[in-house]
Amino acid sequence: MDQPPTVLFESYEQDFRHIIDSVRQKLEGDARSSVGEQRKAALRKAEIELDEADDIVSQLETEIQGIPKSVQGPYTTRLKQARADLNKYKKLSKDLHSQAQRSDLLGAYSRNQQHSDDPYGERSERERLLAGHEVLNDGTRRLQESTSVALQTEAYGAEILTTLRGQREQIENSRDMLNTADRNIDRASTTIGKMIRQMYKQRVIIGAITVFFVILIIVILYFKLVRR
């Protein structure tokens, strides 16, 4: 039996809140307090969970369409809040990525300065800028690759949701057809019952007519024999 839309909505919302709490812990905790690879790992995990949360918000938008208008108001407010929380942590994730890239750039520059074989500063400013620019470009490429993967994941999730929506409609159509068939069977059973009752009535009437004619014939024969 299909669950009511409100039950599905609340189930998806509970999953969303669980994921968004995990994202908050990573972005406001690990990603801020850690550095280096530990920070990058926290940001990558947060990105994966944000993609999952995005898919759940899309499912919430689908489920709210099946909720009756009379009770839809509070669920619409909850959907808006979920979407706002998702956008908030997406922005925070992007900001932390930018901070991590700047930190990597500054760290690379500092290491180059510390390990330079030119203690008198003869290395040109242009070379240092080119090295920093290359580090920044590398970070930008990695961010673009992550964005591309996120977009592909989002498109794949949307395709899955569309497929699930189509399957749900097919199931609902099949259920309607079964209900119609049940009603037709009930009507046919009622009609057959009436026909059977009518047949029994006709048999009783035919039997009564037969008995009447037999008695009539007996009476006629009796009178004829008595007159002779």
From TrEMBL:
GO cellular component, one term: ER to Golgi transport vesicle membrane
Nuclease found in the keyword field: no
Coiled coil: 43-99
Compartments, as annotated in UniProt: Membrane
GO BP term, pick one: macroautophagy
Domain Vesicle transport v-SNARE N-terminal span(s) in chain numbering: 8-94
Pfam families, A to Z: V-SNARE, V-SNARE_C
Compositionally skewed regions (Basic and acidic residues) per UniProt: 114-125
Region (Disordered): 106-125
Alphabetical list of InterPro entries matching this protein: SNARE, v-SNARE_N_sf, Vesicle_trsprt_v-SNARE_N
Signal peptide: none
Domain of life according to the entry: Eukaryota
Keyword set, alphabetical order: Coiled coil, Membrane, Protein transport, Transmembrane, Transmembrane helix, Transport
Membrane-topology annotation of the record: Single-pass type IV membrane protein
The keyword Acyltransferase appears for this protein: no
A single MF term (Gene Ontology): SNARE binding
UniProt xrefs under Gene3D superfamilies: 1.20.5.110, t-snare proteins
Transmembrane segments: 204-223
Entries under PANTHER family matching the protein: VESICLE TRANSPORT THROUGH INTERACTION WITH T-SNARES HOMOLOG 1A (PTHR21230:SF26), VESICLE TRANSPORT V-SNARE PROTEIN VTI1-RELATED (PTHR21230)
Family (UniProt): Belongs to the VTI1 family.
Name of protein: Vesicle transport v-SNARE N-terminal domain-containing protein
The species this protein was found in: Candolleomyces eurysporus
